[in-house]
Amino acid sequence: MMACPNMSTEQELFKVLETVDNYTTDGKTLQLNKARMAPLARFELISE
Predict the structure, then answer these.
(1) The pTM is what?
(2) Residue 1 has what pLDDT?
(3) DSSP bridge partners of 31
(4) What does the alpha-carbon distance between residue 20 and residue 40 come to, in Å, rounded to a whole number?
(5) CA distance to 6, 14, 16, per residue, from 26 (Å)
(6) Which residue of 4, 30, 31, 45 pairs with 10 in a disulfide if CB–CB is 3.0 to 4.6 A?
(7) Cα dist from 5 to 12, 21, 28, 34, 35, whole Å
(8) Which of 46, 43, 41 is nearest to 20 (CA)?
């Protein structure tokens, strides 16, 4: 918890994680979902 310089961002992420009940992935993106609503969060794999 202490690694994030902006605690409000971290708190919002924890709210999303408490709400999520399923996820989808295609190998390049990860979407966190609640029921059949729009994704609550979307993460994209970044390669260097």
Answers:
(1) 0.70
(2) 53
(3) 24, 42
(4) 7
(5) 29, 23, 20
(6) 4
(7) 14, 28, 27, 28, 31
(8) 41
Residue 3: predicted pLDDT: 65
Burial class (CB in 10 A: 0-12, 13-18, 19+), 6: exposed
Domain range list for the chain: 8-44
Contact criterion met (CB below 8 Å) for 35 and 24: no
pLDDT for 16-43, tens place per residue?
899 999 999 999 999 999 998 889 999 9
So what's the pLDDT on residue 18?
Answer: 93
Q: Estimate to the nearest angstrom the gap between the alpha carbon of 20 and the chain centroid.
A: 9
Q: Which helix (H) or strand (E) holds 33?
A: strand 29-33
